[in-house]
Structure formats: C-alpha cells, structure tokens
Amino acid sequence: MSTPIQPIIKKKLDLAKDNINKNQLNDAENILSDLLQEDPLSVDSLVWLALVKKKQGDLKSALMLTTKASNISPNNSDILNLVGLYSKEIGDNDSALGYFKKSQKIKENATAILGISSIYWALDKKILAISFLEKNISKIKDYRIPMKLSAMQFEEKLYSKSIENACRLILAVDNNQVINNLKTPFADSLFYLAKDTFPFPNNNNVIIASIEKLLDDGSEYRNLKNGFFKFVFKDIKTDLFKDTKEKIFDEKFISEYINSNFDILNDDYFIKYLSSNLLLKRLKNSLICCHHIESIYTQTRKHLLSKIFIDKSSIGEAEHRLLSAICIQCDYNGYVWEVTDKEKKEIQNLEEKIIEDLKLTDDININEVLIYACYKPLLNNTSLVNYLSKKFKDTDEINYEVIQSLILEPLSLRENNDHIKSFNEVKDKTSLKVMNMYKEHPYPKWKGILYIPSEINVHQKYYDRDLTEKNDSNIQKEILIAGCGTGQELVTVSKIYSNSNITAIDISLPSLSYAYKRAKDNDVNNFELIHMDLLELVNYKKKFDIINCSGVLHHMKDPELGLKALISCLKEDGYLNIGLYSRTARENITKLRKLIADNNLNNSQEEIAKIRRSIILGYDGYESFNHLLNVRDFYSFNEMQDLLFHPRELMFNLEEIDEILKRNNLEFIEFDNKYQKVKDVYNKNYPKDKELRSIKNWSEFEDQYPPTFLGMYQFFAKRIDN
Ligand SMILES: C[S@@+](CC[C@H](N)C(=O)[O-])C[C@H]1O[C@@H](n2cnc3c(N)ncnc32)[C@H](O)[C@@H]1O
Questions:
Q1: Which residue of 39, 156, 393, 492 has the fewest C-beta atoms within 10 A of its own C-beta?
Q2: 525 SS3 class
Q3: 376 with 522, same domain?
C-alpha cells in the first residue's frame, strides 16, 4: 500500500477485486495467490486475499493474512482496523481492542472509534461504550458515529440523548437509506420519552425539523404512531388550556381537551398550532394510526363542517390548509372515521348544493369542496371531478396537491391494465369470491417509497446462513410472488435481488394495476405482472428459485392444493417463503368476528365505524379487543375489511403446518428474519436448538407468548432432500 504499484500488478489486483465484487471467489483467490508467490510481502495482495477468505467463511486465515500485512506495515491504521475487525469476529475481543486502540493512536479515525466502542459494548461495558463515543463524536465528522451512539443510547433507554444524536444525523445526512435505518429507534425514542423521563431534550425545534425531514420524501413514516404532538405543542401558551395543571400537551391531552372544550377550535392561535407544517405533512403522508390523533381530527372536521355550513367565507388560511390535509388523510383511510348523524345531514345538504352550483355557475367555493372530500370520495362525483380537473390544472399549490392526491393519483393506480398479462381463466368458486373482495378493496393501501430497514433484509440473511453455496445476490434468479396484492413484496424483493426476474401474480386485476404504479414509483423494473389464479401454476411452464406467498393460501378453499401448485413450479433446489395465519395469535380476532356476526353487523362504512367506536370506547363486550388500537389495519377501511370480513379465512397451528409440509416432501427451515427479536428470545429459551427449527419448541414458545405471530407465521421451507 505504501510503495507505488507497477501497472501490471495493479491490473491483476483490479481483476481480483472485480472478481470479489462478482463473488467469483475462487478466481480472485487464484490471482491473489499468484501475486503473493511473486511478492510474498505485498500488503495489498494479503489484505484482499484476507477478504476472500472471510467471504469463504475462513476467518482464521483472514486474520492470519491481515496480521502478516500489519507486521509488514505496522503504522497503517486501516490494516490495524482490519485485524481488529477479524479478531472481533473470531471472538478475541481483547486483541481486537488492542488493534483498534493502536490504529486510533496512529490516526484518529471513525472505524477505530466505532471498533473500540463496539468491543466495550460486547464486553457489557455499555456506559463506557457510550461515553467513549460521546467523547469522540465532535472529533470526526462521520455519520456512523452519531448513528451508533443513538442506537446504543436507545438500547440503554437514554431516549432523550438518543433523540439528540438521531437529529444530529438526520439533519446532516442526505442519504435517505441511512436516515431511514434510523427511523424506527428515533420514533420509538419519541414514543418512549414518557412523562416521567422528562425533561425534554433542549432542542425542540431540531426535533420538529428532523421529523419533517423524515416526512419530506413522501414516504410513509409508519413507526411514528404518536409521541410527537408534545413537541409541536411544547411552546404553546399554557393559559390557553383553562383549568389544567398539565405541562405536557400530547395527543391524548389535546384530544381530551377538545372533547370537553370544543370551543377551542374557534381559537386562531390554537388552529395555528394544529395546522403546523409537521402535523399537516404527517396527515398527508402517512396513515394516522392512533385513536387520540384520530379524535383530534374528527372533532376538527366536524367543527369545520359546521363553520362552513353557517358561513363558508369564515374559513381562514390555516383552516384551509388543515382541510386540505384532512381530506387527503380521509381518502387514504377509505373514510373509516366515525360520522355523526348531524354531519351526515349537513354533508348531504352540501352535496346537493354543490351539484346545484355546478349546474348554475362556474365558481364553486373550494372550502366546500374540501370539506365534502373529508367525508366522501371525490372520484365518485364525476361532474365535480371534471370541474376540479379543469379549474385547478395550473393553480395554487394546495389545491393542486388535493387534486393530485384525490383524483389523479387514485386514477393512476387503476390505469395500468395494459401492462398486465393474463394466464388462463379463474374458475375456482372460492377464488372467484376472494377475487371480488380484492377487486373492490385492493390490499394493502400504501404510498410513497418503500425503504428496507437493514434488519429486514430477510432473504439475504437467510441465504448467508443456510444456502451458502448460492449466497450471491448478484446471480440472476427467477422469483415468483404468488398473490402479490398491491406490490409491497414486489418492491422489497426487487430491491434485495436487483438482478433477478420477478413474476408477480394475483387474481385481483385492480391490485395488480396498483402494484404496477407503486413499483414504478419505487423505480422497480425487473418484473412482470400476471392476472391469474395461483392454482393455474400447475399449467405454467416457468420454474422458480424463490417463491413468496404471504397471506394468500389461507384464503383458498384448499390451501394444500395451493401449496402443491406452488411446489409444481419450484426448482429442485429452490425455496419457499410462506405466510399463514396463526390460530393461537388470532384467537381474539376470531372472537371479534363471532361477536360481529352475532350482532348482525355488516361491512358497510357505517357499521365498520360502529365496530371501531365500540372498540375505542371499550363498550360492553368489546373491551377485550383494545389491542387492535395498536394494529395498523384498524385505521383503514380496506384493511378492516381484510381483518374482519374476509369471505374465506383459515387458520393453522405449527404442528398442522409441519404435517402439511412433510406430506408435500418439504421441511420447515426457519422463521423469517422480520422475527429476529423473537428469535433472540427463543435462542435464550432453547439454546440447544441452534438452527431454530424445532416445531415442538416453537409451539411451546407460542403457547407461552400467544401474540408472537399476530401478523402471520412467516417462514422458509425447502424440499426435504435439498
Ligand atoms: C391479504 S392479500 C396479501 C397481499 C400480499 N401478499 C401482501 O402480503 O401484501 C392476499 C392477496 O392474495 C390474492 N389471492 C387470493 N387468492 C388467490 C389465488 N387463488 N390466486 C392468486 N392470488 C390470490 C388476493 O387477490 C390478494 O391480493
């Protein structure tokens, strides 16, 4: 590394590096071994060969080679860091610490700083690890330091400090993927920063600016359920809230206050806070999944409707912006919020008035349109759609944003049938029933850019661990997504396997059209969409390396027949990633479905609102379902349909799944890595089952923690002989 390299050697080194990038490890090894024959003291060749060895799983040789390189070039801090990293991976923390410290002494550098702190952390000296990073954070500008520090502080429940460092990073870095890896701990810190752990971090504005930045690219910020209102309302004048001793104005406080002091919605000063940029961005970008926040906006909507009803010209600028954001949220949640009888009447009158106005004049009051759109989908009113599309084509930003979200975007989700092939007819009666439901309500609704947090890189991790001989994500694979719905899995899988060909199938044409648009929004191009029943896969010629089928088989008349169809197009050494409902986890949902059936409630807008209200208020018989308040599905009409009114839904336990797999010459491999935290707990309970494969242990585990698989059992399987 220190002496200049001859061109011919450089060429060979470049070729070796290229081979390493392509995962052609044997070729790289041959070139580097030849180079070392010619010059055994070549530090470059030693270091690159060490990397090859590491990738081949031979850490001992990797360590030996880098140690040799370090002896040749003892003052090279990069090489010392490498020796430190390999020592750490081998489990020799003491040596690793020594090498990182040497490296740091030669030259202050972020890798050594992170290395030292990670060793302290591994040795359970957590406070030392944190204070070491704190001491060094301002010495070197490298985003990895605040990122690591924030994560460590979060783990140690130092939420206020964790937020500070997360903010520092979010505001300084422009790499969305880096920022997005921080979204979860950041949101959780905001949430956990409960009243008794106050005082606030000092930098209220910085926190708000950071959340706004996280919302800026239009991607949904799912983890940010609540916990951020208190920052927005922190500086509000306390005498506004009469008779309160509270100092923290969080969503619960605000919603309860509005409920008993409805008049506060007439206060311009309060409305200024309620229509702050952050809150409006949040309303427009992400599904509101918190019943307190929902209550704030349903009350506001009711208030604004009355106000417009009495005098439409009384709506100020802030209220106008608020209305625009609320109607975008309502459209996104499928109008799932509760509407009172008074509101129903007022909106009915307003609708009639708008229709009349449209006949007579070319000038409709925009706030009347917006409040109407807070209750009913604009797209269902053709004359209004035509009027708005013409009138606001190139006018002001707010109104155009509404037209874009409520008219243009939903239309664009429906217009992609030309890009969808079809294969054979859907004949099966259950498939037809299920098809009709998903035609009406494509599932799930989503928007924006989908970032894959590093821990969710499920396939990659699984590959690394289990199918080492095929662990090259650069190899082109054939992937099938059976029952792809609206395309979330398609986008995720495509980002993990960018070199692959993805075939995504579904029986719902509108879902496929939705998936097409979202895939394009996310810059995904390596796919084809086919409208078909997965039962028809038995007649399909292509074979696949990977088949994903999540949340689909349990909606079929005979899930095992569906599984057989999947197996019929699985390559001999391919694997399946299957998602099936757990009977244990869904016991409560089953009870709720029974209660709904006993009460003769149907899936209309009105009755779903009734069910939601009963759960929110904990009415008689519904008090045991309040865990649903933490489930995203609860906050969207389409998702509520899927959760509570599915025409066909079966459930399984792990023994049944194991039997089905065995009957079909398949074996259970492991749960998906999205359950990594669950796996960590399992590991502690069952340390002997290193492969995490014992169905018996997992059943016992689930009995002990029934909600573990509330989403689904999501697992990998492969043919028994492979
Ligand atoms: C609950 S959604 C899951 C969507 C997607 N897999 C996900 O996890 O986001 C179920 C999907 O399976 C599709 N589906 C159900 N039965 C099917 C069948 N027999 N063949 C193909 N698709 C089917 C539905 O149309 C629907 O889009």
A1: 393
A2: coil
A3: no
pLDDT level of residue 191 (50, 70, 90 thresholds):
confident
Residues 6+ apart with CB under 8 A from 433: 647, 648
**Class of residue 717 by CB neighbours under 10 A (exposed 0-12, middle 13-18, buried 19+):** buried
Q: How far is the CA of 518 from the centre of ligand 1 (A)?
A: 16
| Ligand 1, atom nearest to 444 Cα | 9
Q: Give the separation between CA 52 and CA 16, rounded to whole angstroms.
A: 10
Mean pLDDT of the chain: 89
Nearest to 647 by CA among 337, 435, 481, 463: 435
Per-residue burial over 338-372, b if 16 or more Cβ lie within 10 Å, else e, is bbeeebeebbeebbebbeeeeeeeeebebbbbbbb
Chosen domain end from 413, 442, 470: 413
Which residues form the domain of 613? 587-644
Q: Are residues 498 and 594 in the same domain?
A: no
CA–centroid distance, residue 288 to ligand 1 (Å): 25
Indicate whether 374 belongs to any domain.
Answer: yes
Residue 239: enclosing H or E segment and its boundaries?
Answer: none
Model pLDDT, residue 531: 97
Does residue 715 carry a pLDDT above 70?
yes
Q: Which secondary structure element, helix H or strand E, spans residue 215, and what is its range? A: helix 204-215
Mutate to test the pocket of ligand 1, among 222, 458, 507 (most ligand atoms within 8 A of CB): 507
Residue 465: which pLDDT band, with cuts at 50, 70 and 90?
very low
| Residue 65 counted as domain residue | no
Q: How many CB atoms lie within 10 A of CB 458?
A: 21
Residue 480: strand pairing partners? 503, 547
Provide residues with CB under 6 Å of ligand 1. Answer: 431, 434, 438, 443-444, 483-485, 488-489, 505-508, 511, 533-535, 550-552, 555-556, 642
Amino acid at 711: G
Tell me what pLDDT residue 5 has: 67
User: Hey, which of 432, 434, 558 would you mutate to test ligand 1's pocket, going by the most ligand atoms within 8 Å of its Cβ?
Assistant: 434
CATH code at 506?
3.40.50.150
Is 202 a member of any domain? no
pTM of this prediction? 0.85
- Other Cβ atoms closer than 10 A to 626: 13
Claim to verify: residue 387 and residue 435 sit in the same structural domain: no
3-state secondary structure 145-174: HHHHHHHHHHHCCCHHHHHHHHHHHHHHCC
Closest by CA to 596, choosing from 574, 578, 580, 615, is 615
From the CA of 533, give the closest atom in ligand 1: 20
Q: Does 618 share its domain with 714?
A: no
What is the distance in angstroms between the CA of the first residue and the CA of the last residue of the chain? 44
Quick one: 564 and 605 in the same domain? Answer: no
Last residue of a domain, one of 351, 384, 413: 413
Q: To which H or E segment does residue 16 belong?
A: helix 7-21
Is residue 113 a contact partner of residue 136, using CB atoms and an 8 Å limit? yes
Q: Do 363 and 459 have their domain in common?
A: no
Tell how far the Cα of 484 is from the centroid of ligand 1, in angstroms.
6
Residues contacting residue 296 through CB under 8 Å, at least 6 positions apart: 251, 254, 255, 258, 274
- Sheet order of strands, 713-719 included: 420-422, 527-531, 501-506, 478-482, 544-550, 570-580, 713-719, 666-671
What is the structure's pLDDT at 3? 58
Nearest ligand 1 atom, CA 562: 19
Whether 547 maps to a domain, the answer reads yes
How far apart, in whole angstroms, are the C-alpha atoms of residue 167 and residue 202?
Answer: 12
From residue 468, alpha-carbon distances to 63, 465, 494, 692 in Å are 21, 6, 21, 17
Tens digits of residue pLDDT in 587-610: 999 999 999 999 999 999 999 999
Whether 207 shows a pLDDT value over 80: the answer reads yes
Q: By mean pLDDT, which of 52-66, 205-219, 366-380 is the weakest?
A: 205-219
pLDDT at residue 493 tops 90 = no
Both 563 and 579 in one domain: the answer is yes
Domain count, the chain: 3
699 and 551 belong to one structural domain: yes
